[in-house]
Amino acid sequence: MRALLAGTPVIPVITLDLVEDFVPLARALVRGGLKVLEVTLRTPVASEGIRRIRSEVEGAVVGTGTVCTAAQVDLSCDLGCEFMISPGSTEQLLTAAAQAPVPLMPGISTVSELMRGMVHGYQNFKFFPAEAAGGVAVLKAFEGPFPDVRFCPTGGIGPTNFLDYLKLPNVLCVGGSWILPNDLIAARRWQDIERLARQTASVRGIE
Questions:
Q1: Domains within the chain, CATH numbers bracketed
Q2: How far apart are CA 77 and CA 150, in angstroms?
Q3: Which end of the chain has the smaller Cβ count within 10 Å, N or C?
Q4: How far lies 207's CA from each of 8, 60, 70, 157, in Å?
Q5: Closest Cα to residue 34, out of 58, 9, 63?
Q6: Residue numbers annotated as active site
Q7: CA quadruple 77, 103, 130, 207: dihedral positive or negative?
Q8: Which residues pair with 108 in a beta bridge?
Q9: How confident is the model at residue 204 (pLDDT cuts 50, 70, 90)?
């Protein structure tokens, strides 16, 4: 995961209800400089959306989000995804992911969950829900006892605070949907989303 996400500080978190929106949205994000895309498995059309992005959007690096079960690990592999991200971490999920060819970033919000993941060999974690779980202050506290661990905080992160997270040495990237406003998606204003993506990417020189 660390090698895959190197140089990609912001991951758009995509949740769509209409399958025809996946490709134009992904193209807008990639053109704007945000190429690593997390598509959550929260809607019935997510799988088909991933298939279409992978086949039609050049340059997109696609992974699944909200991966909670062993069946969803298998689905992620079948879809050809390049990574998986989960909101939490159960023994069943960690065991299933250990046998999969696709890397998982398990979710944690406490030290005990973090240590359990480390027992399974993980060094990169989603910190969720970031703001509700203590935000920047908690990640600073994690750095001392776990200097080699890296995080992708997600949850409550937006344009006013994402740089606060990216300044931390133990933050690999952040995830969020602020680049994907619902009103712009509903109006299919892909150029405006591309502009938001470019503004976000240019802040840290992602492009």
A1: 2-203 (3.20.20.70)
A2: 24
A3: C
A4: 9, 14, 35, 21
A5: 9
A6: 38, 126
A7: negative
A8: 127
A9: low
